[in-house]
Amino acid sequence: MTVFEEFFRKYWYVIIPVAGLLIVIAWRILSPSAARDETQSPGALEQRFGLTAVPEEFFQPAAPPTRRTLQEEAEEQVRRYREQLAAEPLNENTPVILMAMGNLYRQRLLNYDEAARCYERIIEEFPNAIQISDAYVQLSTCYQRMDAPEKANRLHLKMIERFPEDSVEHQFAREQLGWEITVPAP
């Protein structure tokens, strides 16, 4: 095998694109139409492709897309949730909607007062909802962020009364109150 063959076998993936590029460059330089090629103006397109009318707007740069912030998106979603609650205040999805609104207020909008109202409403109006456990924990977080230790302590006492002693919620409440947690022996 010659040196040339060995070089080609080893570097074929580089040689082929370079050769193709050289062919295109040579064609553009030697082609008589290359000298006549003007910019992509409406007149040039009409000549080359037989177009009769190309609007000038076609050649203007497009306006940049408008981007909304996460906060704006969260506010829009809360508005839609409020509309749903106004249309059907007490349907089966109300606790889910309230939980979602509370989470948006707490996580994206950092509005702990509004988040607390959503979680309080779940606890008061829907005590058997699937989301009740999460509502208690998230409400506790809101009270802590709002620097309302009295409300948080009352909530934790309520959690201790409501949830069984071996539940995560009960243990969470005891821990938040600073009570010693004892784990029963198996």
Instruction: Report mean pLDDT, rounded to a whole number.
Output: 85
Low-pLDDT regions: none
Please name the CATH topology of the largest domain: Serine Threonine Protein Phosphatase 5, Tetratricopeptide repeat
* Total count of strands: 0
Fraction of residues in β-strands: under 5%
Full CATH superfamily name of the largest domain: Tetratricopeptide repeat domain
**Shape designation:** elongated
Q: How large is the count of helical segments?
A: 9
- What is the assembly state of the chains in this entry? single chain
Q: CATH class of the largest domain, please?
A: Mainly Alpha
Distance between the termini: 78 Å
What is the second-level CATH architecture of the largest domain?
Alpha Horseshoe
Kindly state the percentage of residues in helix: 55-70%
Number of domains: 2
Radius of gyration: 34 Å
What's the main sheet like? none
Structural class: mainly alpha
SSE string:
HHHHHHHHH
